[in-house]
């Protein structure tokens, strides 16, 4: 039996002083950007995977300087898969007219 891996955005917390929703990048990301993201993996069906393990961030991408971004990833993603996810995030959204 195969497990299906779902990537979901990490949960943001509401920051009282800033009056906004924030993600904890644990010092890996130093600049605010619309491109910053974190994804967690959920497994369907769960197959004895703890909730803590399912909520672990498996890919983190964010801005650290002008035109400079950082990417952290871990298993079950390969470097190729993580890089492809980040490239999609950096690609400008374009509308295709048919």
From TrEMBL:
Matching InterPro entries: Tubby-like_C, Tubby_C
One Pfam family cited in the UniProt record for this chain: Tub
Domain (Tubby C-terminal): residue spans on this chain: 16-88
UniProt family annotation: Belongs to the TUB family.
Record protein name field: Tubby C-terminal domain-containing protein
């Amino acid at each position: 039996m195969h497990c299906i891996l779902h990537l979901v955005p990490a949960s943001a917390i509401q920051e009282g002083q800033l009056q906004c929703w924030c993600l904890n990048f644990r010092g890996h990301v130093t600049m605010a950007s619309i491109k910053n993201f974190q994804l967690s993996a959920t497994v369907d069906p769960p197959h004895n995977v703890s909730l803590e393990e399912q909520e672990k961030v498996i890919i983190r991408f964010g801005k650290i300087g002008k035109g400079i971004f950082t990417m952290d990833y871990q298993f079950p993603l390969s470097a190729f898969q993580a890089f492809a996810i980040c490239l999609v995030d950096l690609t400008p959204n374009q509308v295709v007219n048919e």
